[in-house]
Amino acid sequence: MVRQSLKAFTIIELTVIVVAVGLIGAVTIPHYVHARTWKVQNSCINNLRAIDEAKQDWAVDYKANLEANPSLQDLRLYLRRTHEGHLPFCPQDQNVKFDSSYKINNLTTAPACQINSSNHMLF
Fold first, then answer.
1. Contact, 87 vs 79, CB < 8 A?
2. pTM for the whole structure
3. What's the rounded Cα separation, in Å, for the pair 101 and 72?
4. Which string of DSSP letters, residue by residue, matches 51-116?
5. Contacts of residue 78, Cβ cutoff 8 Å, sequence gap at least 6
6. CA 6 to the chain's CA centroid
7. Which residues are registered as beta bridge partners of 102?
8. 69 φ, ψ to 5°?
9. Which long-range contacts (C-beta less than 8 Å, at least 24 apart) are formed by 2-10?
10. What is the C-alpha separation between 104 and 58, in angstroms, rounded?
11. Does the pLDDT value for residue 1 go beyond 90?
12. What distance, in Å, lies between the first and last C-alpha atoms of the chain?
């Protein structure tokens, strides 16, 4: 009688696989979290840059003085919009609205993010 051998993983092989998967996860998860945080921050900063450019374009077109404080209605035509046609907003804003995300300020002051003003700012 010929005995058939069973083919299966041993406990040591399974342990090595589990440890390898754990190490890969331990290395990649922090990088993913950092990349996501960086992407959100850069998206907001790019929106602030667009708002600042819109303010400057508005000021040139209307020959506004430096103390002028344009409103959202003034800047609406100058702002870049998303592909759906919406005004930009901070990715961390729960309300997903321009008004709750950004403060326009006057021409001499940079626009500001109202959601995360410590990390989302123009330099």
1. yes
2. 0.75
3. 12
4. HHHHHHHHHHHHT--TT----HHHHTTTS---TTSPPP--TT-SS--HHHHEE---TTS--EESS-
5. 53, 54, 55, 57, 58
6. 53
7. 113
8. -125, 95
9. none
10. 12
11. no
12. 82
b/e per residue 94-123 (b: at least 16 CB within 10 A): eeeebeebbebeebeebbbbebbeeebeee
Q: How many CB atoms lie within 10 A of CB 80?
A: 13
SS3 state at 121: coil
What is the identity of the amino acid at 104?
I
Determine the pLDDT at residue 107: 93
How far apart are alpha carbons 14 and 9 in whole angstroms?
6
Bridge partner residues of 113 (DSSP): 102
